[in-house]
Structure formats: C-alpha cells, structure tokens
Amino acid sequence: STWLIFYSLECVVKKVSQYMADVLEDSRDKVQENLLANGVDLVTYITRFQWDMAKYPIKQSLKNISDIISKQVSQIDNDLKARASAYNNLKGNLQNLERKNAGSLLTRSLADIVKKEDFVIDSEYLITMLVVVPKTSYVDWQKTYETLSEMVVPRSTNLLFEDHDSGLFSVTLFRKAIDDFRHKARENKYTVRDFQYNEQEMNADKEEMTRLSTDKKKQFGPLVRWLKVNFSEAFIAWIHIKALRVFVESVLRYGLPVNFQAMLLQPNKKNMKKLREVLNDLYKHLDSSAAAVIDSAMDIPGLNLSQQEYYPYVYYKIDCNLLDFK
Question: Quick one: DSSP state of residue 91?
C-alpha cells in the first residue's frame, strides 16, 4: 500500500506543479518562485529533511502514518480537480469570447466594429446588410453591387472596416430582395454576414466579457496561493513517504535490529556511472543477487518497473525537475 500511495503522491505533486505552470502561463521564473516546500526551494528542503513529528507521529503504526498521508493526498487531488475545473471553464469561456472578437471578417464578431449610424434601423421596407469583400475585388464591388439584384439602394455602400485580406461593406436594400441579393453575392464570391444591429445583445456580450475577465482576475490570486500551499504539502508528504519506503525496504532487506544510514547523493550526470561502480564495490557483500536486474511482477500503467535497476543498497530517485515547459 505504501507503494501505491508513493505512486499517487508523485502524480499529485506533478499535477499541482504542472497546473501552477498552466495558471502562470509558463513563466518559468514565476513558477519556480512558487514551487517551495516549507518556504524553501526543493533541494534545500530535501537536504535539511527532518521527520515532521506533529503531522506524522512516529508512535503510530506504519499503516496509520500511510493512511494519514493517503487521506491528505486524496483531499489535495480532489480539491485540485474542482478548482481546476472551475478556473478552466472561466478561462475557456473568456477565450471563446476573445476569439469571437478576433480573426477573419468571415467569422469574427462584428459588434465592436459597427456603429448604430451604419444601419437603417426600424424600417418596415429597408434593411442594411453587411458584406465581406476580398481586397482584390473592391473595384468590382463598387461597380456591380447596385445591380447584383433588384431593389438595392443606389450609393448606399460604405467601407466600415478592413483586415489583412478583406473589407466589410454595408449596403441597403429592400427586405423583399434579401434572398436574391444573398444568392447573387455568393455567385460573385462576396460573403453576406448574418448580422442584425441589436444594441441590447451587443451590450450583453461586452458586459459578459467584462464579467468573465473580472472573475478570472479575482480567482487568479487565491488559486495561485492554494496551489503554492498544497504543492508544499504534497511535496513534503511525498518525501516523508520516500523516507518511510527507505525504512521499510531496509528492514525487509537487512532484517532487525534496524541498522542502516540514509544518505542523499547529488552527482553530476557524467559521474553517475563511476558513482554506481564505487557504491557497488562498497556494498555488494550485502546482497549477492543485486548484480542482476530484477523483473517486477507488478505491472502498473505508466510505470515501467521491469526496467527498474536493483542494487545491493536501497535506492530511490528524487526528481526535483517537475515541470515540462512548452
């Protein structure tokens, strides 16, 4: 069971740190500033590690300590899911609205482009339509729009807005000619946008954008604080479980009475092989079977235990590089 807690804890530590990176939008310096354990950087915490008697009383059984840590990590994981879901929904809705107000004239919202005076409003017979015209066809549009269908008001077109490829033109015609005008416009490779000027709807969209933006800012600070506190809690629990595993594995391997020393080693990559050789020479007498690689029977998705190396000493890796920056 300590093994499963160990695995789930590592997942939660990585999930919290990666979500911190997502929320802070991958600003590496900002993320590293917030990924602390007990207020210090991770390497400092590990090198000064002391068992937290208040959180995990050593008078309790190993099973009880494991249960305390298991409940703690489950709570953090559940809270993270709920908070991430709420914030992601808010962020997604805001991004959808922002996308509507950007991009091509063929698809983007026109609410922030047009004005009331661009339209014939509340007329029983006339309507103003908006047409997207490629820049290469401006001259043709000016020559032909009045004759695309019957009942187009002469000299009624105006260029309202341009993007990189196209222009948005207004044109006024009689309501009964709408379908014919649309059809002829399409034949000439002009796109008639479905748009009716409605001040209430347009104001509602703007207010929704403001509300979502304000809500996102309000949630941002408390969310980052929660992530910072709970990353620290999860990381500390993770290191305690590692310490617990060192103890349990040492007893299982070498028996009682307890007689072992835990060490932290941080070699350079180029010295890894040499260090392994030195450690092997020092401790090979403890376990003659360690020369072979032991295939583990446990096959848990996401973990390639069959590749795990087995040494005559108890060995666990602590990876402090928790982030995959895009």
Answer: H
- Residue 216 has which token pair? 């996102």
Q: How many whole angstroms separate alpha carbon 205 and alpha carbon 209?
A: 6
pLDDT tens column, 156-199: 999 999 999 999 999 999 999 999 999 999 999 999 999 989 88
* Residues 219, 89: Cα–Cα separation, whole Å: 12
d(CA 240, CA 258): 18
Place of tokens 């015209």: 133
Long-range contacts, stretch 192-195, CB < 8 angstroms, 24+ apart: 192/129, 192/130, 192/131, 192/132, 193/105, 193/106, 193/110, 193/129, 193/130, 193/131, 193/132, 193/168, 195/110, 195/114, 195/130
Q: What tokens were used for 132?
A: 């997207």
Question: What amino acid is encoded at 243 in this protein?
Answer: A
- pTM (whole model) above 0.85: no
Sheet holding 191-193, edge to edge: 158-162, 166-174, 126-134, 191-193
User: Helix 2-23 vs helix 199-254: angle between axes, to the nearest 10 degrees?
Assistant: 150
Number of residues that this document lists for the chain: 326
